[in-house]
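Might I ask for a little of your time on a matter of protein folding? Here, with my thanks, is the record as I have it:
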Amino acid sequence: MLTAELEAYWQAYLRTQPAAARLPQPFVEAWAFGDNPQLAGELGALVVAGVKTATCAALWSSELAGEPLPAAGHYSIILGGGGEALCIVETVEVSVRPFDEVDAAFAYDEGEGDRSLAAWRREHWRYFTRTLAAHGLQPSETMPLICERFRVVYSA
């Protein structure tokens, strides 16, 4: 469920669309990148700038939280470190693949650091080590990741 402020942001986006595109109302959720406000702000800014067009999450964490998988056509309000709406993205592609099968193109699209696969693996291993520990799990080379590509459709 969206807060009143986020619902107003979503409605502002919908008003930019032709009436025919407004119905039926597509799936929309609000979330921030990373596991802390600083990371949420940094990664959210990369999305707004058009640098970050992909993200991933550990499938295990999503399953344990009972979260549905993202799907093409879903919309997300991306939040900054203070919980403020930064932009709206539309999911354009979702795949599940093992950590060790993420390729250089996906790492580049994630837009972080020097955008190399080596940096992606190093930083995401650190991230998954932190976040999976909350569930008593450890990352593995074969852990399944939800790999999502998206495009910014609204920023105000």
